[in-house]
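Service request form, structural biology core

Requester: graduate student, group of Dr. S.
Request type: structure prediction, single chain
Budget code: on file
Notes: please return the result as structure tokens.

Sequence provided:
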Amino acid sequence: MSAPTDQRTVAVLGTGIMGAAMARSLARAGHTVRAWNRSRDKAEPLTADGVHVADTPAGAVTGADTILTMLHDGPAALDVMTRAADGLRPGAAWMQSTTAGVEAITRLADFADRNRLVFFDAPVLGTRRPAEQGELLVLAAGPTAHRAAIAPVLDAVGTRTVWTGEDGAAGSATRLKLVANSWVLAATNAAGEVLALAEALGVDPDHFFDAIAGGGLDLPYLRMKADLVREDRLTPAQFAVDTAAKDARLIVEAGRAGGVRLDVAEASAARLARAAEQGHGDEDMAAAYYASFDAADDRQHRDRHHDRP
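Core staff response, request fulfilled:
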């Protein structure tokens, strides 16, 4: 719990899976939280947690010490902040936590400079559950002289902050986030393919997990994502297919810009896009498992994995 002298007025723009959870963590820590979302009905439940839901982005940011953006992508963040411009206070801190990609960060930082905001490139690692518990890992870049001002906000939403640089506009935190997400998406898709191949070959998945138990190949994350599929617990999503597909595209684009081919990332992007087309966009990204099959067979494969002994 933040001390009274550390209380802030925080505007949270974007209350999807992550934004809503972060808003609740901030309110729980004693901060004054003002939230906005394109679909107001998705933000309304936050009122039960003491969060004020604003009608407009400008209304949400008026009087805020810190603005936290957790939107779909870079263009969405720029659009919403442009709409909020009339309510921005010069000198306020902007924690840009949307996974925006390398190119978009420069445009967002330019907007901050024009509006005299202190810009922090601050994406997070974690999904719904750690976000709800205030246990995210924050990757952040921004000026040392202003870090104390956002420290209470960082403490409310995360258990640790990894500082990657002084200049948020350089996007060092976003670059690290893309590297980390490349591993997360590869592991998630690998979990789905293990289950799909086991099914195709008539192998009991439990035999696979028994075979790797306790060794270097055994990953808690692999088991966690596989269980979401096998137990049909893909909703509510911890991290949705649609958002993961967007992140995968950003990773591929960043690799190309850097002169490297990312074959696994490209395959991950294709699988996630296919799962979204099959109607799994709002489900957990583990639902990329279903991209291994025809859309018409989804129910059959759900039942097969859900009916575990």
